[in-house]
Amino acid sequence: MSCGEGNQSSAWPKHGCFNLGDVVTNSVKVLTDDEKLRLEEQNKRMVTDFQAKKLEQEARKHWDLFYKRNETRFFKDRHWTTREFEELLAGETVGDNSEVTKTMLEIGCGVGNLVFPLIEDGHRDYFIYACDLSPRAVEMVKQHNLYDETYMKAFPCDITTDDVFGTIPEGSLDIATLIFVLSAIHPDKFRTVVGNIFRLMKPGGMVLFRDYGRYDMAQLRFKPGHKIAENFYMRQDGTRSYYFAEDEVGDLFRGEGFEVMVNSYIHRRTVNPKEGIDVPRIFVQSKFRKPCG
């Protein structure tokens, strides 16, 4: 993982960083007076309704431009996912010890920073679907030397619509990953997204979730003029980011029929003494299961 950022690499030095250890908690961060003031300052100039609607209408365009500018350089490969989510390692065997292929979907696959490390590390127990809002990102996945439609299929998809059901049958997935993706979607569409995922999962299927937590460093750093709605912000490049409370995520998935298996804040502090960097991050990390009954 890159220094300081949950899923980005370009903004921080790549060397000399180390993690002081994760703290897992269900308690929301207690704000200092200075941090409370920063949040109050954000309310002084909000994104206009017109601009907010335009950002929603042009979400695909902004992500396509993002990948046009950054290509495959921006996000680091997520070799850490198998450490955090052991479900990605699980293979099944039948009586004759031949492997049973599981089916997984990476939602918001970008340029393949989760799926290709999974394949490189030898975990080929899945047929992998990978979808993204950006057609440009999907094309980059297809150009990767490990892309092979005998064990994976990448396709453009707006997960807030019924698009996905044109490629993946209902009730067919063992695993779905939703990692730093839901935060980029308008909060009004969260329930639709989670409802769509529920329809895709087999009974007993697992959703692996990780995203930005409430009062993360990045949320506190936004200046006036970037706040769209409560805990929802516009970045300089037109992409957006929401910051989740742990109980909010649990209620969202529970409300669409999932069982909550794990749901916590992860507090991570990464430092680089040589460069004077001390970066506290907050994520929400969760596992949800579609009931078997």
TrEMBL record:
EC number(s) from the headed UniProt entry: 2.1.1.-
Keyword Methyltransferase found: yes
One protein family per Pfam: Methyltransf_12
Enzyme class: transferase
Cited Gene3D superfamilies: Vaccinia Virus protein VP39 (3.40.50.150)
Keywords, comma-separated and alphabetical: Methyltransferase, Transferase
Methyltransferase type domain ranges (all copies): 105-207
SUPFAM superfamilies to which the protein is assigned, alphabetical: S-adenosyl-L-methionine-dependent methyltransferases
Function: S-adenosyl-L-methionine-dependent methyltransferase.
Family, as annotated: Belongs to the methyltransferase superfamily. METL family.
Designated name of the protein: tRNA N(3)-methylcytidine methyltransferase
